[in-house]
Each structure stands twice: as structure tokens, then as C-alpha cells.
Amino acid sequence: MMEKQVAIVTGGATGIGAACCRALAAEGFYVGIHYRKSAEKAQTLQNEIKDGFLIRADLANIDDVEKMVSFIKETAGRVDVLVNNAGQSINADILSMKIEQFDEQRSLTRGVWYLTKRILRQFMLRKAAGRIINISSVVGHTGNAGQIPYAMEKAALDAFTKSLAQELRGRNILVNSVAPGFIATEMTETLPPEVKDRIMAGIALGRIGRPEEIAQVVAFLAVKGSYITGSVVHVNGGLYGG
I want to staple 96 with a disulfide (CB 3.0 to 4.6 A). Which of 19, 67, 73, 92 is the partner? Predict the structure, then answer.
């Protein structure tokens, strides 16, 4: 079994996920970089942080999740921190969105639930401490026009955090969410200028956040924060107070 602590970051090849991988590697973790499509970026990141391994899986596919869990066990032998970061945003207003699009958005949340369930079994078999950190979003609290299914799933992720923390009462497994605001990633780059301007007008700090600023909080929850569980930590520059 790996002697170093192991952190798994889903959607770890780009954006906030990649920043989390870097931050956790800097804290001494052996980092599992999960990706679905971004193989080249994942490989580049692994070369950069050096102490890590790659995991390819479609979290919406339960068979893929099972293979992922088996691969982690074979490769690292343990998991100490799980960062559920992988996300997708399928955008359309309610009248335009098709049921297949809605189901595709929801399927990822199901995968997060199932992956967490399987990793929890490893925590419990080892009778070990653990940290689960879910990356949600400010829109799960504020709502956002044209993103109803995305906002619903992010709100669900925070509810998952609070409920799981209660289910794990008495075990040394901490469960928290980090809810980013408007962060400079590939996902936010595609927003129309008028939407960006409207969001920027509401940010007290007057600027877009950086992925590294989310990763700082994730690293804190992974290493410190020993009296924090069932919480949603908002990191949004004053866009929303929580």
C-alpha cells in the first residue's frame, strides 16, 4: 500500500480540478488525476506535478466508475481525500431544453454519488480518517437563468454534502463543499459578454476569481479544517454571502 496519503481529483486535468491537483501535490499527496476527454492535458499535468497517476473514466457510466475504483486500489492501495470536482454545464432555457439534455446533466451527479459510495467503503475497511470535498457552485444558491438543471444539480451536491456528513456521524470522515463563484475557466470563457458583465457588476472584489483561489480552500479542507464538516464554503469574491 502507498505510504503517502492519496488524493483523487475528478475532472482533474483542467481548470479548478488541475489547480486542486497542483495544490494537493504541493501538500505532499500522491494525486490521482481523473479525466474523461482531456488525455493530453492530464498527461501534461502529471508530468508537471510528477507525483501522481492518471485515471480515465466517464463518471456517468457506472461500469466505468467500478473500473476506476478498482484501478485506484491496484495503483495506490488507498484513498485519503476525494475531491468531487468533475462538472458539466448543459445550458438552455426551460422551453428549449430537451429531456435528454436534462438527463445527461443529472447523470453526472449520480456518478458522483456512486463514486463517493465506493470510496467510502475503502475508508471504512481501513477504519481510516478521510476527507470528501465536493465542488459545487454559487448558482446552486442564487439560481441562474438558462442553467436550471446545472443549478439544480449543484444545489443537490450541497444537500448531499450536508446529508452525508450526518450519516457519517461518529466516524473521522469529514465532508464539505466548496462553492466557487465566477472563476476564470474554460466553462466560463464561453459565456456571452453581456452575461459576464452582469455577473461582474455583482462581485464586491471587482474581478474574476482564479482556479488557484478555489484550490487554496480545497487544500485547507484536505489537510487542516479538522472541526469542519457538513459545511458549504463560499469562494466568490463577495458575489454571494451564503
Answer: 92
